[in-house]
User: What shape does this take?
Amino acid sequence: MEEIIPGSIVTLHFKLGLEDGTQAFDTEDEPLTCTMGDGTLQPGLELALYGLKEGDEQTITLDPEHAWGERNPELLREMPRSDFPGSSSLEAGQILAFSLPGGEETTGTVLAVEDDMVLVDFNHPLSGQNVVFHARILKITNPGATTDA
Assistant: This one.
């Protein structure tokens, strides 16, 4: 039976959560298919999959270094409230989309709203936290493998 190696095309269900049981992401409705090493999964998540076979399940807790990194205080930004049209509904905890100068998008979490200022955290929501990763491997196709037609 094939096992996951660099370059494997893997179909899996996975869940990401925090140690307190808070769920951050779950593919139970639709499995994910990705190629190992293509950047779809964080490197630490990929490392947890190498060597697994179809039908295997694994749960592992990753420290921030192997998940989304430590929180970077330089990614906290005070922004003028006037930068937020229709800002009357702004509140702490909201996750908003922001356009970057190159046309890409990123998200930020509103930490505080004051009369003339909004504090936004551009760190990944899972940064600085231990992340519980549970994976169930559904299918593996390895590079150079042939399939019966």
User: Anything to note?
Assistant: The chain has a mean pLDDT of 90. The chain has two domains: 9-69+127-141, 73-121. The radius of gyration is 19 Å. The domain at 73-121 is CATH 2.40.10.330 (Thrombin, subunit H).
